[in-house]
Input
Amino acid sequence: MQITASSLQKARRSLLKCEYLGPTVKKHGKCTLTPDQYDPFDALITSIISQQLSVKAAATIEGRVRDLVGKKFRPTSILKASVEDLRAAGLSGRKTEYVQGIADAVKRRKLNFKKLESASNDEVIEKLVELRGVGKWTAEMFMIFALGRMDIFSSLDVGLQRGMQILFGGEAYDLPAMEKLAERWSPYRSIACWYLWKVVD
Output
């Protein structure tokens, strides 16, 4: 199921009934996830920049990189930027390698975003983790924000881990336990993630 205006309404109605997440859904109103506004390449590069950073730090560095290469991340502009300039914008040496490697893979058509749209979740993860710097978390964020998959839960996400611990306390004691607890929100787990991030914020 894809994230659309109508599916967001169904998801909200469903999640409102959850005794744990319902109050947060009521407090924060409509979910504003709009994957159709995200370019797949742009979303993937944004995820790389965000790895292992706080939301604030990631937003600062992302803004500097956009100032350097343009408002929208494109393979050609990423490849044209020098390593020195990307690092001066705040990217680590490894992340600089990662974003330029992904840009090169797209330019040489080793990575086809159109094919990923019809691939299964497992196939998307398998294809993306072939790229240097892309792990399961990045692939899951890509499926939520770029592909608009409705039922993704990323137990590797630190924010979601905190949100689960706030809601469920000791029941959310490890990743398998969190994944089990999140099953109650299927088939709307991506939307539940959005509200969980609000819990932490």
